[in-house]
Design brief:
By secondary structure, the chain is of the alpha+beta class. The chain is built from five helices and 13 strands. The strands form three sheets. The protein has a six-stranded mixed sheet with strand order 9-6-10-13-12-11, with helices on one face. Strands 1, 2, 3, 4 and 5 form a five-stranded antiparallel sheet that branches. Strands 7-8 form a two-stranded antiparallel ribbon.
């Protein structure tokens, strides 16, 4: 068994999550369930809270009328660890006991990429304008919404700058198993595949006016 703080990849967790509602995407385990009503959803959350306290590992929770969502990640390790798998299995056990039904829709995460020559020269403009905060990442320094609502913004170095294309594009992260179908669906919806050179890490597509969207998969 891996060390409790060793991060795991989607390939590492696939077998453990096969009989659960959880999907591993971008360093987080995501799951959503439906219940009979608000009261039953609240009971679900209360039982998960007891298990989470006992394990000293707590999920992010979304509670609505007849719906509950959980996001699990080990923030001190920067991704998914054995602690998250253990809690995911416990949550699934509670869901089964309460007859909570998994929501089959796969999760997405979104990022906004800005092409630039000098990220340091423009980052503060975007930080102040959007009331975001700086966050270290594999790209250098990203901007994130402290309210957890808006997409992360990252800055892609271009030297010299590209003038033949839009300087801002969207990245959508989907589970690896869903990526090729998403690309096919986009093309069927009128999009164009610009390149699959970097697949399965990412595909670059565009609408009929050249606005770009990257369909990406997550290594974590």
């Amino acid at each position: 068994m891996a060390d409790a703080k060793s991060t795991l990849t989607p390939a590492d967790t696939a077998g453990e999550l096969a009989d659960t509602a959880f999907v591993h995407l971008d360093g987080v385990l995501h799951a959503s369930y439906t219940t009979r009503d608000f009261e039953s959803a609240a009971v679900f959350v209360a039982q998960v809270a007891e298990i989470a306290d006992a394990q000293n590992h707590h999920p992010d929770v979304r509670l609505g009328y007849g719906s509950v969502g959980f996001d699990l990640s080990s923030h001190d390790a920067g991704g998914v660890t054995e602690r998250d798998l253990r809690l995911a299995r416990a949550i699934q056990g509670i869901a089964d006991a309460l007859s909570a039904q998994p929501v089959e829709t796969s999760p997405n995460t979104y990022e906004l990429a800005i092409d630039c020559v000098d990220a340091d020269a423009i980052r503060e403009f975007w930080r102040v304008g959007l009331a975001y905060e700086e966050s270290p990442s594999r790209h250098g320094i990203d901007l994130v919404d402290p309210r957890g609502r808006g997409p992360k913004i990252w800055f892609q170095h271009m030297d010299p700058p590209r003038t033949e294309r839009n300087r801002i594009h969207l990245d959508v992260y989907v589970p690896t198993a869903d990526a090729e179908q998403r690309v096919e669906d986009i093309v069927a919806a009128g999009g164009f595949l610009l390149t699959d050179e970097f697949a399965p890490d990412w595909w670059v597509l565009a609408d009929v006016e050249g606005n770009e969207l990257c369909v990406c998969t997550s290594p974590t």
